[in-house]
Amino acid sequence: MARAALSADAVVDVALRLVDDEGAAALTLAAVASRAGVATPSLYKHVRNLAELRALMSVQIMDDLAERIGGAVLGRSADEAIRALMTTWREYVVEHPHRYSALVQTPEPMVAQAGQRLVDIMLAALRAYGMEDSEAIHATRCLRATMHGFAVLEAQNAFQLPEKLDETYDLLIHMVVTGLRTPLRPT
Amino acid sequence: MARAALSADAVVDVALRLVDDEGAAALTLAAVASRAGVATPSLYKHVRNLAELRALMSVQIMDDLAERIGGAVLGRSADEAIRALMTTWREYVVEHPHRYSALVQTPEPMVAQAGQRLVDIMLAALRAYGMEDSEAIHATRCLRATMHGFAVLEAQNAFQLPEKLDETYDLLIHMVVTGLRTPLRPT
DNA sequence: AGGGGTGGCTAATGGCATTAGCTTATGAGC
DNA sequence: GCTCATAAGCTAATGCCATTAGCCACCCCT
Prior knowledge:
Helix content of chain A: 55-70%
Low-confidence stretches of chain A: none
Oligomer: homodimer
């Protein structure tokens, strides 16, 4: 080992704060290096390239989300668990909208695994409905799509009208809870 | 006027086909120019810059979607309209996944207006539920968030497990229809 | 005290968006 | 049919960015 200095985690951390402060479009290696007080090429000692940095950031974001959500869901079941999950998810997005916009979905194993950890937590919350496996997977996808869609749109400021988003989100939670509880077909 | 040749619309068209063929990440002015059989700087005679090209592409995509959806919803009401709307939306995404990934939401008026046209069609479909204005707006946001979330994830290939997406989407439609029909509170 | 490896640096390359300024074809009016 | 203004194209140049190559200094371990 040599000087302590930077590390991959530290670089990711600097990059995440940069994105928080200046938006996802401001993410360049030059800007990260400048914040870290280092020359641009030095970053390559810690991350392979920009694409990997993006992936590492996404993993960190998903893990943060997973941790928060895991805590929120603990000890609750069924409707209450979904409500807590969705509320916690949105809180994170509202706290860090740019960070959420910087999330990338790549087929890369590292990112896919972090996504899976997140999905597993949702899956666990939905099993509380007594769903069998395949059914729970479909339900989880619906939950994920719904939350993610709202999150993306809110993070990008895509909702124009003056109606309160809090109220919309209450309705969204209601829609998910009601819609997933009502059986699709009487099979 | 001078030579017919290119036009802003033609550039947008070439760019959309490029994205369809090679993915959203392949969108560069150099690549568009090459496809159009022209030198890169020539594009600036038709679009202001890359950001404007992206915006114009997004407008085109949203208008295509609006046209399809307008047709699909015509003559249907309530549940059937929502079902048709969601099905048509997803068909477009499956046909043009890269194009959908290239969609940008900016506060720019041009894009916001195209988005509004799309939202208005959804709003019209939801009024069929007899919702009053504010209620219909919240419901439209839920519908939009849900569809968009699923579309983004499917376009990015973010669903890993082998379960059929068709089945998931059936459940999603069911969730939206059921969830939006059930009143939130008996106010 | 010394040596190996790690983490930093400067310099160089190539792709891209964008701007400046020149050239030419076209079509409207005569 | 000729002229000319202008739209639409071009080449050249700039500057930012990611990435690579190759060099140097510091620190820990012995």
